[in-house]
Amino acid sequence: MFAGSRSIFIGCATGLIVASLPFSSHAQSVDTALPASLGPQIAAQDLPEASAPQITIAASEIPPALTSQEPVASASAKQTDASQTSPGQTSSSQPASSTQAEPAQADSEELKQKEAEEQLKQEEHQRVLGIMPSFNISYLGAATVSLTAKQKISLAFHSVTDPFAFVLPFVVAGEHEFAHDNIGFPWGIKGLGERAGAAYLDSFDGNMLGNGILPALLHQDPRYYRLGHGSTTHRMLYSLFTNVAARHDNTGKWQPNYSNIGGNIIGGAISNLYYPDTNSGIGLTISNGVVVTAEGALGSIFEEFWPDISRKFFHKDPTHGLDAQFRAADQAKKQAKEQDKKQPQ
What is the distance between the alpha carbons of residues 51 and 249, in angstroms, rounded to a whole number? Predict the structure, then answer.
């Protein structure tokens, strides 16, 4: 998420995306619009909403004994019995109903947390080409359950302690030394080590702040909710949009992505502590924040189209058939609209 951490694979990723765009465009035949903030081509209703599906999924797994119908029915029966009792007797149906509702709500929250944990375990096995971690990507769309604060921080920490997170900084450091960048560092083995250490700290700070701590405090979901259907243009605009907008955990509505942008800027400020004086200052803070946000946008585009690339070139589907389900739903919706137009008014 921070400067340099994605710069190596961006060129290759962009080339792969360009190579696969004709396939993606034909495979995703239904064109929808993105949010109004990105222009008239975009429709807000096509952006996935989290809150309603999450509640539905969680409620569907609640045992019948915990549903609200049983406490209500029980209360009604007890009220009927109470009306037949003597005036000196009192009914305890209302307190009993309230007492039963509280465990049901608590069990519902526990079920959602367990479901989020299961989804998180699946995401933590996602890798591009079996090497590059893709832990912050959700293929489930609106069915994705919001993470707890602890789960967000745990996911961010898992990302920055993955073996790939330690290898990539040396590649970035070698690139900078070859290009004679970051002249404040020495040259040779010592300079390579210092550059690699700075690159890793950049990644660590940016990920822990932008994907863990700030999302936990601001109740924003740090993951990229892949769209997976629609036209190529629509999907690219959606990918760019998600770098400046995030979904709120409780409402599921889109709001400015304070976590991502704030994490990049704060991380840039922290980098002044370990970069040479020739490379530090307010300029480094702002430039790194802008550059990393732009790199994040390219990374989102890559993650959006990676399953299409994987299916075309490697004959593997990272979504395990979810894209096919989305396309089938789009086609069914399109056919329903055409039939409505053909029906006489």
Answer: 8
Contact by Cβ (8 Å): 219, 245: no
Identify how many contiguous H helices and E strands the chain contains and give both numbers. Answer: 12, 6
Residue 257 C-alpha from the chain's centroid: 12
Q: Residue holding tokens 């307190």?
A: 95
DSSP secondary structure string, 196-265?
HHHHHHHHHHHHIIIIIIHHHHHTB--SEE----S-HHHHHHHHHHTTTEEEBTTT--EEE-HHHHHHHH
Q: Please tell me which residue, 25 or 172, carries the higher pLDDT value.
A: 172
249: tokens are 């955990």
Strand partners, 137: 224
> Helix, strand, coil: what percent of the chain each, to 5?
65, 5, 30
List the structure tokens of 107.
């069990």
What pTM did the predictor assign? 0.67
Task: Specify the pLDDT at position 74.
Answer: 40
Dmax (CA) for the chain in angstroms is 95
Give which of 235, 253, 237, 260 is closest to 37, Cα–Cα: 237
